[in-house]
Structure formats: structure tokens, C-alpha cells
Amino acid sequence: MNGTPWWLKIAAKIFLSRLPVGYKFWNRLRLFRHGNMDNSWLAANKFILHLDRAYPDNRPDHFTCLELGPGDSLVTGILANALGASEVYLVDVGSYATEELSYYRSFCQELKKRDFKVPDLSGVNSFLELQKQCRIKYKVNGLDDLRRIPSNSIDLIWSHSMLEHVRKREFPALVSELRRIISDKGIVTHNADLKDHLGGALNNLRFSESIWESDFMAKSGFYTNRLQHRDILEYFINAGFEVITDEVGRWPMLPTPWVHIDKQFKAVPEEEISIRSFHITLRPSVQQTDSQ
Ligand SMILES: C[S@@+](CC[C@H](N)C(=O)[O-])C[C@H]1O[C@@H](n2cnc3c(N)ncnc32)[C@H](O)[C@@H]1O
Prior knowledge:
alpha/beta, 2 domains, seven-stranded mixed sheet, globular, binds S-adenosylmethionine
């Protein structure tokens, strides 16, 4: 759909998402996708990026971790296990990951070529056995699943191009679950892509809140919550996190003319709205006691 105007993409996605076929069908046609499944190493490498951000000096040998929004495959979980994760939660809002064992077997061959400790998949005959062997808990009910994870139990939480997809009304609850789950010395690392998912501009900001947040629009395959970088940081800080690092990428010029941006965003400073991506790392903030 490259080169198609944004408004035609919206119209096409609204129409296609109403047809009675599932996500896996569209994924095969490359129309709705949640990742770079064609290159399993590229997909898995996102985990290494987050691991390096979380532990720039020394990676722990053993840890527990949680990825939000793994998308089309479980390769990040397999890699996390190969790098010492004793328990890996992969939490999504739908059963999007491929269940093809041959895909995971060839990913393990990739790992072997790169001298990683490879999980033994020889006795694995089902998608569930694969998860068990790699200590992966793949959950597909989003916030409800987060609520079932024990408090203070996860050392590393990460997400890649996911925060911007969380329904806006669910965002505060999600962040407060992350604060509950993260261990006292845990680290959270998120990368977010604030470009619209209609061609990489700011066409999503053309719409009023009531239209954009309606289920009709939000369930059509191009939803992003339109939270700005500063809103997202504020949610995390209010939930009890402190920022360790915060890197932003900006547009040199707004890709969508200011005049077309909806009035609710007109009060946002242009330097904020020009942030098109960011990577933050956070940790639980130290609780101040009364005597301090
Ligand atoms: C653009 S895809 C990114 C997939 C993968 N992380 C990647 O970088 O290739 C966004 C993912 O976030 C998931 N997602 C959206 N809202 C979520 C939520 N509330 N909890 C967990 N996952 C969510 C989507 O289902 C999807 O798998």
C-alpha cells in the first residue's frame, strides 16, 4: 500500500477489517502485520537492543522478563530464554504469533550459527510444548493477563513499537500493572513509534477525539493512541517510575501541515509534537519515607 494516500488507506482498512477473515489471512497477504516475521533474526534482535539498554554494563545471567506486544512470533522469547531468562511472559491482545514449528526450528538454527545456547526442540511437537521448553508464557488477553502476574516478580519489562497501540482509555491501568509487577531492582525499556500507521506522518492527529477513539476507528487496523512523548512519561512517573534514560527522534519539519491538525493538539508545543519516536528506560522510583 506504499504510495497510497492516507485517506484511501483508512477507507481500505476499514473495509478490509470488516471482512470475515482472521488476522493470519491478512498477515499472509502482508496487509495487516505486527512485526518483521520474514527475518526472524531482525525480529529477535529487538530483544538484544532492549537488553543492552537495560544493562549497558553487565547483563545478569539469570532474570525473569515480560515483553508487551510480541506480535507475529515468539522469537524474542526464545532468544530471551537462550540468554538466561528463567521465565518469559509474552503478553499480547490477540493470538497473532505464528504456530509453525518449522519457523521456530529454523530460528534456532540461526541462533546456533551465532553461537547462542540453543533450546533443544527435538522433542517438541506442538506450539504449547515449544512454549514450555523455552519457558515462555504466551498470553493473549492483555491487561487481564497482566493482572494475573505476581507482584514484584519481573526483572525486565520491554516493548517495541507497542505503547502507541494501547487503547488510550487502558493506558493508566496498564502502566500501574507494570509498576506492580516490576521487581524492586527491575528495569523497564520501551521504544515507541509516534508516526501515524497510515504512511508515517501525523495524519492521525487530523481527527477529533470522539471519532478517533470510537471502536469503529480503533478496531480498523491503524489505531494509535496519539499520546505524546510527555504524556507517556507522565503516566509512568505518576505510577511510581523514574526515568533513567530518554532519547527522542524528531521530524525536522512536521510531515502533516499544522493547519490540518485537530484543535485538541493545537495547545501541544511544536517541539513536543515534532517527536516521532523515543526510547525510554525506567526503574521503580525510590519510595520516600516520612523520616527522609
Ligand atoms: C506494531 S506491533 C509490534 C510488534 C513487535 N513488538 C515488533 O516490534 O515487531 C504492536 C503489538 O502490540 C500489541 N498490543 C497492542 N495493545 C496491547 C496491549 N494493551 N497489551 C499488549 N499488547 C498490545 C499488538 O497486538 C501488536 O502485537
